[in-house]
Design brief:
This protein has helices spanning 5-19, 47-53, 80-86, 92-98, 107-119, 132-142, 146-152, 155-166, 170-193, 200-213, 274-293, 300-318, 325-331, 358-361, 401-410, 419-423, 456-464; strands spanning 23-27, 33-36, 39-40, 60-65, 70-75, 103-105, 124-126, 217-218, 223-225, 245-250, 252-253, 262-267, 390-393, 396-398, 430-432, 435-439, 444-446. By secondary structure, the chain is an alpha+beta fold. The strands form six sheets. Strands 6-5-4-1-7 form a five-stranded mixed beta sheet, with helices on both faces. A three-stranded antiparallel beta sheet has the order 9-10-12, with helices on one face. Strands 13-16-17 form a three-stranded antiparallel beta sheet, with helices on one face. The longest helix is centred in the middle third of the chain and has 24 residues, at 170-193. It is globular.
C-alpha cells in the first residue's frame, strides 16, 4: 500500500457521502493469461479499486454498504498449492486491516450477500467493466448481461469517483513526479539513441527496460516511429533514416500505478531541416501558449481552441492554410493537421479514468463534447480546470497522406487549405511535443524535476554533445 490506511478510510467515507445510499461494489482485477492460464501478463490492479482499498493482490473486490455503514474486503485466501508456487501472502483479513476495513467476505459469500440485496430491491452501484472475466462475474452475481452493463453502470458512482480522483493530493503528485523522473530517463535515452541505423524497436526496448529496471512498467505501449503522422505508430524493425524525424511518445508507471506521459520529436540526423524547423517551431509555440492559458476556472475547451487558432494563424503564414481563422477553426479545418485533442487528464491511468466514460470524466453539465466534428470528437476534456488537476499538454502537426487525399477529393474545407502545398509536405511525417502539467492556484507548472529538452536549440545541442 502506498498511503497510510487513514487515506483509504477517508476516501471511502467521502465516496459514501457523495453516493448517498445503496451498496457500492468495486471489483479488483484478476490475472490475465497471455496464451495459457499459468503464463500471465504482468498483473495490473484496477485503478478505482486500488484508489479506495490500496491492495494489489489479484482476485479481490470491495463492498461498501452505505445504508448499514459497513465495509467489506472480498477475496479467497490462497491455499497450500499457491504457496508452493508463489510463496505466502497476507490473508484477506490482514489486507482488510491494512486498508482500515473491518469486515471480510469470500467470493461465494459476496455472491450470497448481493443476491439477498437484490431480492430486497436494494440499489447496487458498480462501475462500467472493461475486462470480460469481470463482465461474466457481474452477470453471474447481478444478472445483467455484459451487453447491458455499461448502460446500467451507476452514474452516481461514476460521478463521485471522477470528482474524487480528478483532484490529486500532494502525496499523489509526489508519486506522479516519481513517474516523471523515470520518464525523463526514458526520453533522454531515446533522444541520445536517435541516429541512422538504430531500429525503432531497439529504442523502444531500451526505454521499456529503463521502466522495468526501476521495478515499474511503461504506462502504455510506447509509440516510437519515423511515421509520426500515425497517431499510434508502434515500433517496427525498420532502421532509422537520415533526414527524417523520430516521434517518441512514452511514459512510466510506478509500482503504485501513477503515470507519466511525454512526447518528443527528434531529428535523426542531429539537426532539423529548415522545413522541419518551421513546423516544429509552430508546435513548440502552441505547447508554450497552452501553458500560459491553463489555470483554475479556465475551460480546457478554450485552451484547446486557443491553441487551434494560434496553429491556424501560423500555418497561414506558411501558406498551408488560408481564409478567416475563426471560420477555419469553426469548420474544423485545423484538424487536418491536429486530429486529436490538446490533452487529457492523467493520474493512476495514463488517460485518467477514461474507462468511466469521456462524457463524465472530461465534461460536465456546463461543457459537453462535440462528438460529430472530426478532430473535436477526440477532445477528451473540455471542462473547467481545478487546482490539483493533472493534464497533458500535447499539440501536434501531422501530414497524413491518406487524409490529405480524402479531403482534397471531397473538397472538404477547401476554402481554408492549400492542397497544392500540402502535397509537397506528405513526406514530413508528424511532430508532437507533450508534457505533464499540474494546475496550481494561479496557473500551472511542469511535473518532473528535470525538463526533457524540447526547444529546437536545446534538442540539437543535447543530441550532439
Amino acid at each position: 500500500m502506498l498511503f497510510d490506511k487513514k487515506t483509504y478510510v477517508q476516501r471511502r467515507a467521502a465516496l459514501k457521502e457523495q453516493v448517498g445510499s445503496g451498496i457500492i461494489l468495486l471489483l479488483g482485477n484478476n490475472d490475465s493469461p497471455a496464451n495459457y492460464p499459468s503464463n500471465t501478463y504482468r498483473f495490473r490492479q484496477d485503478s478505482s479499486f486500488l484508489y479506495y482499498f490500496g491492495q494489489h493482490r489479484d482476485g479481490l473486490a470491495g463492498i461498501i454498504d452505505i445504508d448499514n455503514n459497513r465495509e467489506y474486503l472480498v477475496g479467497n485466501d490462497i491455499d497450500i498449492e499457491d504457496i508452493v508456487w508463489f510463496g505466502s501472502v497476507d490473508s484477506v483479513a490482514d489486507m482488510a486491516a491494512q486498508s482500515g476495513v473491518a469486515n471480510t467476505l469470500s467470493m461465494k459469500q459476496m455472491a450470497e450477500f448481493l443476491s439477498l440485496a437484490r431480492k430486497k430491491g436494494r440499489t447496487i452501484h458498480f462501475l462500467p467493466p472493461y475486462r470480460h472475466d469481470l463482465m461474466i462475474l457481474l452477470m453471474d452475481i447481478l444478472g445483467i448481461h455484459p451487453s447491458q452493463q455499461r448502460t446500467q453502470a451507476s452514474v452516481a458512482l461514476i460521478k463521485a469517483v471522477v470528482n474524487q480522483r480528478a483532484v490529486k493530493t500532494p502525496e499523489e503528485i509526489a508519486e506522479i513526479e516519481r513517474a516523471c523522473a523515470i520518464g525523463y530517463e526514458m526520453h533522454t535515452t531515446a533522444m541520445k539513441m536517435c541516429r541512422p541505423g538504430v531500429t525503432e524497436q531497439e529504442i523502444s526496448g531500451r526505454i521499456s527496460g529503463i521502466a522495468s529496471s526501476r521495478g515499474c512498467m511503461v504506462s502504455f505501449q510506447s509509440i516510437v516511429s519515423m511515421h509520426g503522422e500515425i497517431m499510434h505508430g508502434y515500433p517496427s524493425p525498420r532502421p532509422l533514416e537520415a533526414g527524417r524525424l523520430l516521434l517518441c511518445d512514452a511514459g512510466a508507471e510506478t509500482n503504485e500505478n501513477y503515470c507519466s506521459d511525454n512526447t518528443r520529436t527528434t531529428p535523426i540526423s542531429g539537426r532539423f531541416t529548415q522545413r522541419q524547423k518551421e513546423i516544429y517551431s509552430i508546435v513548440e509555440e502552441c505547447h508554450d501558449y497552452a501553458l500560459s492559458l491553463a489555470a483554475p476556472g479556465v475551460k480546457w475547451w478554450d485552451v484547446h481552441f486557443g491553441v487551434c487558432r494560434l496553429m491556424t494563424e501560423k500555418l497561414k503564414d506558411l501558406g498551408l492554410m488560408k481564409g478567416d481563422t475563426e471560420e477555419a477553426v469553426r469548420a474544423g479545418a485545423h484538424a487536418m493537421f491536429m486530429p486529436h485533442g490538446l490533452g487529457h487528464m492523467m493520474g493512476m491511468d495514463v488517460h485518467d479514468m477514461e474507462g468511466l466514460g469521456q462524457t463524465y470524466v472530461g465534461f460536465d453539465d456546463e461543457v459537453q463534447p462535440n462528438l460529430e466534428q472530426f478532430g473535436t470528437n477526440c477532445l477528451r476534456c473540455g471542462r473547467r480546470l481545478q487546482e490539483g488537476f493533472v493534464m497533458t499538454d500535447e499539440p501536434g502537426i501531422y501530414f497524413i497522406p491518406a487524409l490529405i487525399d480524402d479531403w482534397k477529393a471531397r473538397g472538404h474545407c477547401a476554402a481554408f487549405l492549400n492542397f497544392d502545398m500540402l502535397e509537397t509536405y506528405k513526406d514530413l511525417g508528424g511532430i508532437r511535443i507533450e508534457d505533464d502539467i499540474l494546475i496550481t492556484s494561479d496557473g500551472c507548472r511542469f511535473l518532473g524535476k528535470d525538463r526533457i529538452p524540447y526547444h529546437i536549440d536545446e534538442v540539437e545541442k543535447f543530441i550532439n554533445k
